Amino acid sequence: MDVYEAVTSRRAVRGFTDRPVPRQVLERVLSAAAWAPSGSNLQPWRAYVVTGGPLAELKRRAGERVVAADPWDEREYEMYPPALKSPYHERRSAFGHERYSALGIERDDWEARQRAAAANWDCFGAPAALFCYIDRDMGRPQWSDIGMYLQTVMLLLRAEGLHSCPQMAWSVYRQTVAEVLSPPDELVLFCGMSIGFEDVTVGYARTGRAPLAETVTFVEG
Ligand SMILES: Cc1cc2nc3c(=O)[nH]c(=O)nc-3n(C[C@H](O)[C@H](O)[C@H](O)COP(=O)(O)O)c2cc1C
Hints:
By secondary structure, the protein is α+β, with helices and mostly antiparallel strands. It has one domain: NADH Oxidase. The chain is built from 8 helices and 4 strands. The protein has a 4-stranded antiparallel β-sheet with strand order 1-2-4-3. Helix 1 crosses helix 6, helix 2 packs across helix 6 and helix 3 runs antiparallel to helix 7. The model has no long low-confidence stretch (mean pLDDT 96). It binds flavin mononucleotide.
C-alpha cells in the first residue's frame, strides 16, 4: 500500500469485528511508528496497548459508568475551545450531521446520539486499543508531536489491513482507564484508539474536508 492509499483509506472506523489483532503485528506497527518526528527527538508519547482480559475489564468498568450516568472525570485538558467560532462551528455541525444521519439518527434525537456515542467506551467492538499518554510537563509543541505519532500509527495499521478510531472520548473516563493501566502520576491521558479489523456491515458516511483554498495558501513568486 502506498502512502496516498494509506492516507485516503484511513478513516475513523466505528465498527470492528472480534478477530484478534496479533501481538507481532502491533509490535511491528509500533516499532515503525517510533520513527515519527518530534522536536529535539523528545519522543514524548507513552503508549499502552491493551487487549484480552484487561481490555474487557476496562470496557466493563466504563460501560458501568455509562449505564450509571456517572459524571465525567475532572478534565486535564480542554477538548475544544468553549465557543467554536466560524468555520470550526460549521465543520463540527456538518460532521455531527454526517455521522448521525449515516446511522439513521435524527438531528434532535439526543438519546439515540448518546447511545451511538456510548459505543466509544466499548471501543466500537475492537479487540485492541492503544491509550496515548504524555508527560504533564510537556507543552503544545510536544502535544503536536503526539498527533504526528498517532497518525503514523494509524497509517501503518492501514498497511497491515487494520483500521482504527482515535478517541478523545476515553479522556472523560480517564480514572477508569488509569485503574486498569496504572500509569505513573506524571502522565496525562490524551486519547484512546480502537484498533482492529473493520466490520463492513456497519454503515458510515465518509466525512468530508474543506476545499483546499480554505486551509492552504500558496505564496508564489
Ligand atoms: C485526536 C482525535 C480524537 C478523536 N476522538 C474521537 C472520539 O472520541 N470518538 C469518535 O468517534 N471519533 C473521534 N475522532 C475521530 C474524528 O471524529 C474524525 O477523525 C473526523 O471526524 C474526521 O473523520 P475521518 O477520520 O473518518 O476522516 C477523533 C479524532 C482525533 C484526531
